[in-house]
Specification:
single chain; about 200 residues; alpha/beta; 5 helices; globular; binds NADP nicotinamide-adenine-dinucleotide phosphate
């Protein structure tokens, strides 16, 4: 697949290497240059791996028809402030929007937004670190379009994660809360980032 990644930091860089390692055609785009500066037209999937606060600006650079129309837009962002506390301003004046994931869907209404990878610390985006005691690290997958969600589940599986579908995009609220807990444990409680979530389901 052709996958365009906005952001070449810890998350974009790590996931990009994992995806390229599986033979995907990965390229990077600088979100600060706006949507026109990014070659997204031919992309099968696009990954958002920039600070959430930059997403509204990127969306505002779309003039006319969005080149992301119909595309799967993976949202790995977490709404956090500089001091790691939760960002509660989602940049949308609609009280129905209660997560970054839902805000991203509003910013890019013609895209198929799927929240994913946000609950995994970037340190773990390496093949050898995706398993713990024989179990794969969980990544949770939320989105309104079941087909898009399914495609992201397949990608996450291929990369070596244990994907767990959580349903529609409103569940991004829960996934972002998990990320805040992750940060609380890692930063405030001193556990560091070699930590994360393993979901178990004895019946499946
Ligand atoms: N780090 C983690 O463990 C982790 C895990 C899951 C999710 N997340 C989320 O994933 C996203 C990326 O995190 P990260 O750790 O990869 O951050 P990072 O290492 O700081 O990289 C951020 C990337 O976004 C670019 N960027 C910074 N500010 C921007 C802006 N205002 N507009 C557009 N682009 C901007 C940076 O470009 P320059 O280098 O040129 O500044 C860089 O390429 C964040 O939303 C974060 O909350 C992080």
């Amino acid at each position: 697949m052709k996958i365009v990644v906005f952001g070449k930091g810890a998350v974009g860089g790590g996931l990009g290497l994992l995806m390229a390692g599986k033979g995907h055609d990965v390229s990077y785009a600088d979100a600060r240059r706006g949507i026109e500066g990014a070659e997204v037209k031919d992309a099968d999937m696009v990954l958002l791996a920039i600070p959430f606060q930059g997403v509204g600006t990127l969306a505002a650079s779309v003039k006319g028809d969005s080149p992301l129309t119909g595309k799967i837009l993976m949202d790995a962002t977490n709404p956090v402030k500089g001091d790691w506390s939760p960002e509660t301003d989602f940049g949308i004046s609609d009280e129905e929007v209660k997560s970054a994931g839902e805000a991203v869907q509003r910013f890019f209404p013609d895209s198929r937004v799927v929240k994913v990878f946000n609950t995994v610390f970037a340190d773990n985006f390496k093949t050898e670190r995706l398993t713990v005691g024989g179990s794969k690290i969980s990544t949770f997958v939320a989105g309104n379009d079941p087909e898009a969600r399914g495609s992201v589940v397949e990608l996450a599986k291929e990369l070596g994660f244990e994907p767990v579908e959580t349903g529609e995009l409103f569940t991004a609220r829960y996934l972002e809360a998990m990320a805040h807990l992750n940060i609380q444990l890692a930063v405030k409680m001193g556990r560091g980032t070699d930590t994360g979530f393993l979901y178990f389901d004895r019946n499946n």
